[in-house]
Amino acid sequence: MGRRPARCYRYQKNKAYPKSRFCRGVPDPKIRIYDLGRKKAGVDEFPLCVHLLCDEKQQISSEALEAGRICANKYISKTSGKDSFHMRVRLHPFHVLRINKMLSCAGADRLQTGMRGAYGKPNGTAARVDIGQVIFSIRTKDSNKAVVIEALRRAKFKFAGRQKIIISKKWGFTKLSREDYVTERAAGRLQPDGCYVKYLNEKGPLSAYFKKTLRALA
Can you give the pTM of this predicted structure? Predict the structure, then answer.
């Protein structure tokens, strides 16, 4: 028996139903990779950040998330190179989908119970998404802006409903606006920390302050 079409599970009808000790035998979600591209790129290398936002309250299946991820990754890798971006999938499919399996073989009418005991068995997973929630985030160089927007536009076709592409005012994946980031970094108040930055606290022992300052200037 094949998969049901995603339209059967598109709307958030019921409460969240996560995998637990009561809900067992859940198949693994199709999407296994949530970070791709050049993950180890420093915070200074990729200032531009573009988001794909969901514009409906709905459910997105793990298969659709995987299809969208592959589509965006393939387009950017082919056009501007696999080291030109860092993409992050911001949704996780924790909601378990159920199916009330019906028999379709000969003599099934004597075995079947119709809608009696219709509570289904787990058969997939989906992410529950709100209006304005981010699906994908991509950080890259300013020169790759058009490529990233086109990649997200193509990924939109893998999802039901309506999505929007938003160009962030923040620096990369940090919480700071681009202007604030430049001024704070020049003043030496920020320390790069992977994709993010740490604020250098001015309180504490003098020795720790000197150590931090030297590290920030290095």
Answer: 0.89
